[in-house]
Design a protein that fits this description.
The complex is a heterodimer of chains A (about 425) and B (about 290). Chain A is an alpha/beta fold and about 425 residues long. Helix content of chain A is about 55%, strand content about 15%. Helix content of chain B is about 75%, strand content about 0%. Chain B has helices at about 1-35, 50-60, 60-90, 100-105, 115-125, 130-135, 155-180, 185-190, 195-205, 210-225, 230-235, 245-255, 260-290. The chains are: A alpha/beta (about 425), B mainly alpha (about 290). Chain B: Belongs to the binding-protein-dependent transport system permease family.
Chain lengths: ~425, ~290
């Protein structure tokens, strides 16, 4: 921690020495540090430099962003916030309430963000009516991936209802194939749970349960049915699933050991990296039920002093939502652009399907935030729900008990 | 002046570390206690709200599991590591030829970090890769050893790995204790024809009471602060079946932005440490006075 504080001090000293020129400056705190992600950020850095800006990179690896958030807390408490921070979902509003976010409405209005972003995604980027964050991409969470050869050999179609999924899974199990590749980590349990919940509760019920935390919906019969389906899912995973990483589960689908995986579209990157082709080697479809669960990465803009930093902030916001960056970044990362007017010629068939579904669900109101990936609820509430989901999935708890525990846990997390 | 310096040098030299400890240990304990009484979420807030965080803590089933695990883990770990360490030390004390080499071998796990221990045991205990798969490969198809993925048994895998890591260290402590017992007494007992096991149970072990106490204190603080072993071995899973108070606190403070809740769990952990250390300090100080 000490050497970290020192490096910040050095960074600040270097930053101020260049301030006399008043060129756009941005210090960006993010946790895109793995291979493909780092490459995607490099695209933004180059574009920023090409527009005359100076980029100070502040990558903090580890803990799925936990380490970055700890660094951010230290920076904000010491009154020296970075220009832009990779933040998402309700965390943006949480930081806004601490009074540390900047207003970038001028940039947003000049570039007409209101018209090019889906309404529910734009909602996350606004703090009490003014724009305070810029969206980078849209990951769809409610995907089901399948091994094309395994399905064909067993005469199975991609399931369009949970009954069809159960029937297919029983058939696969009888044939000696693991129906569902899954990793027993709390967030993966939650990912499967929310896909099941969306299918059984429907879009409206999902919104009531996981955005409004409506007690009646949380304890409804549909929620009991959701936990019943989760108990079935538990029977379809192999006995050795505990603690497995998601990409190893994806590999099981790839090599035909398992048939299906329910995971966000980052799983597509694994298939692609292994040289598999969508539609031929592997299939993608939305999980049974209507709706679209999104996980949107974004940059929140923090209040900074100095004309050069504010210029850098405006430039960064403009570039992030710009068509070129949205295209190049998302081609690298496997997600789809947040703005709806980017040509999709270079994207693969799964991404095109995702973009079409996003537009359609945005029109009929079933474009919903993912609770498992921190888009729908604040940390304490989302965590409380995940605790119940993972405790139920990893024990023989009854669905009725789970529903009661869910209501108690949500109430206790307030 | 020189006389003043002579008299006050010890105080002056000790002052910086005294102040540092006052601020960074006791100051932050007080700060945590304060924050645990507030509704702090993402950033610390300072309006006292009473004991709501403790109410939330005790209503949380996950905390129940974590706190219960601390007692299962702590008790088994301390008791078994001490017994194993003592037995190893007594066996090693029989004037065997290669004592130096064997002592080093048993002590070596201590040189590994808990992360390495946890990762190695994760692979050994993984039913699809480790022991179970190996024995099944030998032809015993029904052999099952899947504690790591069984929510009811997973906590014992942590006990197993922690004992493997620490019993060599306990052995070294006890060995030093055995060697420090006055040889004359042992020789006198042998001259009187007292059997060896009686020499151990009646003379040597009772005279090692202070060593037992130090071993207990070292092991119990290892148990209470256990964090890295759980993270590496099970990640708190399956579900949250192997959560310990330290991992609970980490999850609340750093993953969920619930600082008040984390602070209250930290205070409870500290009270557990106090419950162990204070009687020890008390007995130490009293024996010095008397």
């Amino acid at each position: 921690m000490k050497s970290y504080a020192l490096s910040i001090a050095c960074g600040v000293a270097l930053g101020t020495s260049g301030a006399a020129f008043a060129e756009p400056q941005a210090e960006v705190l993010h946790y895109w540090t793995s291979g493909g992600e780092a490459k995607s950020v490099a695209v933004l850095q180059e574009e920023f430099a090409a527009n005359g800006g100076t980029w100070t990179d502040m990558p903090v690896a580890g803990g799925g962003g936990d380490a970055a958030m700890t660094a951010l807390r230290a920076r904000v408490l010491s009154g020296n916030a970075p220009t832009a921070v990779q933040l998402k979902g309700p965390a943006i509003q949480e930081w806004y309430e601490e009074g540390v976010l900047a207003d970038i409405s001028a940039v947003a209005e000049a570039n007409n963000w209101e018209a090019v972003l889906p309404a529910s995604i734009a909602g996350h980027m606004k703090c009490e009516g003014s724009w305070c964050a810029a969206p980078v991409n849209v990951h769809r969470v409610d995907w089901i991936w399948a091994n094309a050869n395994v399905l064909e050999a067993n005469g199975i179609e991609m399931p369009t209802s949970w009954e069809a999924f159960n029937a297919a899974a029983d058939k696969l199990q009888a044939a000696g194939i693991i129906p569902l590749a899954h990793g027993g980590q709390a967030w993966q349990d939650a990912t499967v749970f929310e896909a099941v919940a969306l299918g059984i509760l429907g879009a409206e019920g999902f919104h009531k349960a996981f955005v409004e935390l409506d007690k009646d919906t949380l304890t409804s019969d549909a929620m009991v049915a959701t936990f019943d389906q989760m108990r079935k899912m538990r029977g379809y995973v192999d006995p050795n699933f505990s603690g497995r990483d998601w990409n190893l589960a994806t590999a099981m689908v790839m090599n035909g050991e398992a048939a299906f995986q329910i995971m966000g579209d980052w799983a597509k990157g694994e298939f692609m990296a292994a040289g598999k082709a969508p539609g031929e080697d592997f299939l993608c479809a939305s999980t049974p039920g209507d709706g679209f669960l999104y996980n949107v990465d974004s940059f929140a803009m923090f209040e900074v002093g100095g004309a050069d930093k504010q210029a850098g902030q405006a430039l960064l916001a403009e570039l992030v939502v710009g068509k070129n960056f949205q295209k190049v970044f998302n081609l690298n990362k496997g997600s789809i652009p947040a703005r709806t007017d980017v040509p999709l010629d270079e994207f693969d068939s799964c991404a095109v399907l995702s973009a079409a579904d996003m537009a359609a669900s945005s029109d009929n109101g079933s474009l919903l935030p993912s609770y498992a990936h921190g888009m729908a609820l604040r940390g304490a509430q989302a965590g409380a729900i995940t605790d119940v989901v993972t405790a139920h999935f990893n024990s023989d708890m009854s669905s009725a008990d789970a529903v009661q525990m869910l209501a108690d846990a949500v109430a206790n997390s307030m | 002046m020189t006389k003043w310096l002579e008299e006050n040098t010890p105080k002056l030299v000790l002052a910086p570390s005294f102040i540092a400890i006052l601020v960074f240990v006791y100051g932050f304990i007080a700060w945590t206690a304060w924050v645990s009484m507030t509704r702090s979420r993402l950033l610390p807030k300072y309006e006292i709200e009473g004991f709501i965080q403790y109410d939330r803590l005790f209503a949380s089933p996950r905390w129940d599991t974590a706190f219960g695990n601390l007692f299962i883990f702590g008790t088994l770990f301390i008791v078994i590591a001490m017994i194993l360490g003592l037995v190893l030390a007594i066996l090693l004390d029989q004037n065997i030829r290669t004592e130096g080499a064997i002592r080093t071998i048993y002590l070596y796990p201590m040189a590994l970090s808990m992360i390495v221990t946890g990762t190695a045991w994760k692979w050994i205990l993984n039913p699809g890769l480790g022991l179970q798969a190996m024995v099944r490969g030998w032809g015993f198809e029904d052999f099952t050893f899947d504690w790591l993925v069984d929510p009811d048994m997973a906590i014992y895998t942590i006990v197993l790995a922690a004992i493997w890591q620490s019993s060599g260290f306990v052995m070294a402590l006890f060995l030093a204790g055995l060697r420090s017992v006055d040889e004359e007494i042992i020789k006198a007992a042998q001259v009187d024809g007292i059997p060896t096991w009686r020499v151990y149970t009646a003379i040597i072990i009772p005279s090692m009471a202070p060593i037992f106490l130090s071993a207990f204190i070292v092991l119990s603080h290892l148990a209470i602060k256990s964090f890295d072993l759980v993270i590496a071995l099970t990640g708190g899973g399956p579900g949250y079946a192997t959560d310990l108070p330290a991992t609970y606190m980490y999850a609340m403070a750093f993953s969920r932005g619930d600082i008040g809740q984390a602070a209250s769990s930290a205070m409870i952990m500290m009270l557990v440490v106090f419950a162990i250390v204070v009687p020890y300090l008390y007995s130490e100080l009293r024996s010095k006075d008397g």
